[in-house]
Design brief:
The chain is mainly beta and 142 residues long. The chain has a single domain (3-130), classed as Beta Complex (Metal Binding Protein, Guanine Nucleotide Exchange Factor, Chain A). It has one helix at residues 29-35; strands at 3-6, 13-16, 22-26, 40-44, 52-55, 60-64, 69-74, 80-85, 90-94, 106-110, 126-127. The strands form two sheets. It has an eight-stranded mixed β-sheet. A three-stranded antiparallel β-sheet has the order 1-2-5, with no helix packed on it. The protein is globular.
């Protein structure tokens, strides 16, 4: 299924193919600062080649937040849109920017070691102190 999403001001619009139905709630300090929230929530793009900008792609902001991860955002309104991992070999969209429905099977919390004190993760939720197993080849930066 194709999904469409956009930023707050609608300047940046994207389309992507299938997304993971398992969400990542990332509590790293980079996500906290980037989203201005306790964590960022992402869905992995199952085929990186399916992601494309419908509008605004020539003006996308890019911040290299670590040696292996870049954050793509709207230069006009600042909305965080995509995490590009390992030079684009893996991509994850920020779920809150979707303009359509995503059926979700489950979610997990990563970088729980960096979570803010005022947010509590439920006792029955899946938690990783740093990266989950599928990202374990990367060194944690913060």
């Amino acid at each position: 299924m194709n999904h469409k999403g956009s930023c707050l001001c609608k300047k940046m619009q994207y389309e992507t193919g299938e997304l993971s139905t398992e969400l990542d709630h990332c509590h790293c300090t980079f996500c906290q600062k980037s989203h201005g929230a306790a964590f960022g929530t992402y869905a992995k793009v199952m085929d990186e080649n399916s992601f494309k900008w419908i509008s605004g792609g020539d003006d996308v902001g890019r911040y290299q937040s670590s040696s292996h991860s870049a954050r793509l955002f709207c230069n006009a309104c600042g909305s965080s849109l995509v995490a590009e991992i390992d030079g684009g070999k893996m991509m994850a969209i920020t779920v809150a920017t979707l303009d359509d429905k995503l059926d979700v099977d489950k979610a997990f919390h990563m970088f729980a070691s960096s979570k803010v004190d005022w947010f509590e993760i439920g006792e029955n939720e899946t938690v990783y102190e740093e990266y989950p197993p599928y990202l374990s080849n990367f060194e944690a930066t913060e």
